[in-house]
Amino acid sequence: MFLALMKDRGYRVLGLEYSVEAAAIAWGYDGVPTVCASLSRAPLPDASCAAITMFHVLEHLYDPAAYLQAAHRLLRPDGRLIVQVPNASSWQFLLLGENWTGLDIPRHMYSFRDRDLILLLDRCGFEVIRTKYFSLRDNPAALASSLAPDLDPMARRVRGIAETPLVRLLKDVVYFALVLAAVPFALLEAACRAGSTVMVEAVKRC
């Protein structure tokens, strides 16, 4: 959907995806050109990208440094890299520990603190020019799902939990109310640079 929005705004976009099924959905439903490939083997020439985005990607990789090095090679000299990951120095993690959904073991290979991510980017040839600690989509929902994992709609669908329409509706309403209640806390932790996600914008270092 993100790439479809960018395409609608006149940008040339290309998606990379490990899953053939997900790539087909991007092509078929969103009209976004998507190939099954990793960034290190992307069918693109060096210095050909104006921007590369990685929203909740690095924590799933066995070798995140290799991915960032590939991004460095593919970006134009004035290109931008946007990376977002769960923030292991967030208040949510400090308060909830192993119950924090940002850990997501075993799907997450790494847990990044904000300073870990900045150091990794530096070692891969990037200079961070902006950091952001709040995502309206992710931060309140992370707290709600950590406190009440059995109410998380996505988790319930993935697990194939049998529910009557009424039970499903009630769970969704309670979950939505919990997400709304989590917004003030999510805003406060983000204001203190301790949000449950950290997004950085970086450029290639000269």
Task: Provide an overview of this structure.
This protein is an alpha/beta fold. The chain has one domain (38-204): 3-Layer(aba) Sandwich (Rossmann fold). It has helices spanning 2-8, 20-30, 64-74, 91-96, 114-123, 139-147, 153-159, 165-191; strands at 15-17, 34-36, 49-55, 75-86, 126-132, 197-204. Strands 3-4-6-5 form a 4-stranded mixed β-sheet. Strands 1-2 form a two-stranded parallel ribbon. Helix 6 packs across helix 8 (165-191). The two termini are 33 Å apart. 28% of the residues are buried.
In short:
This protein is of the alpha/beta class. The protein has helices at 2-8, 20-30, 64-74, 91-96, 114-123, 139-147, 153-159, 165-191, and strands spanning 15-17, 34-36, 49-55, 75-86, 126-132, 197-204.
Alpha-carbon Rg, integer: 18 Å
Biggest sheet layout = 4 strands, mixed
Q: What would the principal axes of the Cα set say about the shape?
A: globular
Got a strand count? 6
What's the number of helices? Answer: 8
CATH class: Alpha Beta
Second rung of CATH, namely the architecture? 3-Layer(aba) Sandwich
Helix content: 40-55%
Helix/strand-derived class?
A: alpha/beta
How many domains? The number is: 1
Strand order of the largest sheet: 3-4-6-5
Can you give keywords for this protein?
206 residues; 8 helices; 4-stranded mixed β-sheet; single chain; Rossmann fold; alpha/beta; two-stranded parallel sheet; globular
Write the layout of secondary structure elements.
Blueprint: H1 2-8, E1 15-17, H2 20-30, E2 34-36, E3 49-55, H3 64-74, E4 75-86, H4 91-96, H5 114-123, E5 126-132, H6 139-147, H7 153-159, H8 165-191, E6 197-204
Parallel strand pairs: 1-2, 3-4
Antiparallel strand pairs: 4-6, 5-6
Helix pairs in contact: 6-8
